[in-house]
Specification:
Number of strands: 7
CATH topology: Spore Coat Polysaccharide Biosynthesis Protein SpsA, Chain A
Strand order of the largest sheet: 3-2-1-4-6
Number of helices: 11
Structural class: alpha/beta
Distance between the termini: 39 Å
Largest sheet: 5 strands, mixed
CATH architecture: Alpha-Beta Complex
CATH superfamily: Spore Coat Polysaccharide Biosynthesis Protein SpsA, Chain A
Number of domains: 1
Order of helices and strands: EHEHEHEEHHHEHHHHEH
Oligomer: single chain
CATH class: Alpha Beta
Low-confidence stretches: 270-274
Helix content: 25-40%
Mean pLDDT: 86
Strand content: 5-15%
Shape: globular
């Protein structure tokens, strides 16, 4: 029997509200018309027990590994690695990282993703200290075993959100293999107080491709439905001209106005080519 081919695997970590987990799955499917998607959730323990209350779909997977997640730790990054390893033998082209509070506000432009997502191209840009100066920087440099790996491989330390980042399968495969070969997953400790998905992941993405790809997520939380309409319909919004973003952050609450807006309006918006 021929294995089904998927265009995109969406990897999501979730730790609260099983209703919002399924709501995000439905949002992803509605926002990817004509695109074959596989959605995999890495849940925390309580949600994993509740998964059987949800409808079953062949393109919806709950990773049997389920752990607690905490911000500014390694747990989210390692959960995405678990998700990739679970689907590694599936046939797919792209792997996208999402949080459980993400929602699509308009359809995915798959042509742009195929055109602009970089291919594997190992690039030693040279070990560099990041330009940012935050408490996360101080915490990151406390882990000297991890820092040494970056130094030995001439990896530039980068900072970026992971939400809405698409990687080609060859790239995510290389990154996960690199982490396993160099023991990165063993050298990021639970007591490390920095977000590995915002430092380790983007640094390895730039190392393996030469640059950071587009991220399609707006990081701001306090949107209104009018804001979303403006983002969709205008060529720029609040001074931002490159409106390729089509993912927002919303409350993990089924009564959140943004969730209701996306649920009722996602099919009305067309893909706007960049």
């Amino acid at each position: 029997m021929t294995q089904k081919k998927y265009d995109i695997v969406y990897s999501i970590t979730a730790h609260e509200s099983i209703e919002c987990v399924y709501n995000l799955y439905e949002n992803i499917i509605k926002s990817n018309p004509g695109i074959d998607c596989l959605v995999i959730f890495h849940l925390e323990d309580k949600l994993y027990e509740q998964r059987n209350t949800l409808p079953i779909h062949t393109n919806l997977i709950y990773n049997p590994i389920h752990t607690k997640k905490h911000r500014f730790t390694s747990t989210i990054f390692l959960a995405h690695i678990d998700n990739y390893l679970y689907v590694k033998n599936y046939d797919f082209d792209f792997f996208c990282f999402l949080d459980s509070n993400n929602l699509f506000i308009k359809p995915v432009d798959y042509k742009t993703i195929k055109k602009e997502t970089p291919s594997l191209n190992i690039t030693q840009t040279g070990y560099k200290y990041p330009s940012w100066d935050t408490w996360q920087q101080e915490e990151f440099f406390k882990n000297q075993k991890l820092v040494k790996i970056f130094q030995d491989h001439n990896i530039e330390i980068c900072v970026s959100t992971h939400c809405g980042m698409y990687l080609r399968k060859e790239v995510i495969n290389y990154i996960v293999d690199f982490c396993k070969t160099n023991g990165i997953d063993k050298k990021i400790f639970t007591y490390d107080h920095f977000a590995a998905e915002e430092i380790v992941l983007p640094s390895l993405v730039k190392y393996s491709t030469g640059f950071l790809p587009k991220r399609y997520c707006w990081q701001q939380y306090r949107y209104t439905p009018k804001d979303i309409t403006d983002i969709i319909n205008k060529s720029q919004w609040r001074g931002v001209k490159n409106l390729h973003h089509n993912i927002i952050k919303a409350k993990r609450d089924m009564n959140d106005p943004l969730r209701k807006y996306c649920e009722n309006n996602i099919n009305q918006h067309q893909v706007i080519a960049n």
